[in-house]
User: Fold EF-hand domain-containing protein D2 from Diceros bicornis minor.
Amino acid sequence: MATDELASKLSRRLQMEGEGGGEAPEQPGLNGAAAAAAGAPDEAAEALGSADGELSAKLLRRADLNQGIGEPQSPSRRVFNPYTEFKEFSRKQIKDMEKMFKQ
Assistant:
């Protein structure tokens, strides 16, 4: 599902750039991500070259994983900060809740 969403975003972006620039080579029946996954790695990089870096990196990573090339990455080590996550509570309320849950 997420791959389909990224592919639709990429195809819309490529379509918008194609309308502005005049040249948009599209394959009938295939969107940008499906064409990139079906083609060689060079073709995938070329097809995703006009997309922003984060979106193209995600699509290339998913294409590699689907083909069995990529290695799994460890999940990001994001630190949970309750003060920024729950802005509706004061710091004192959050500290009181933490004490209550730790008992």
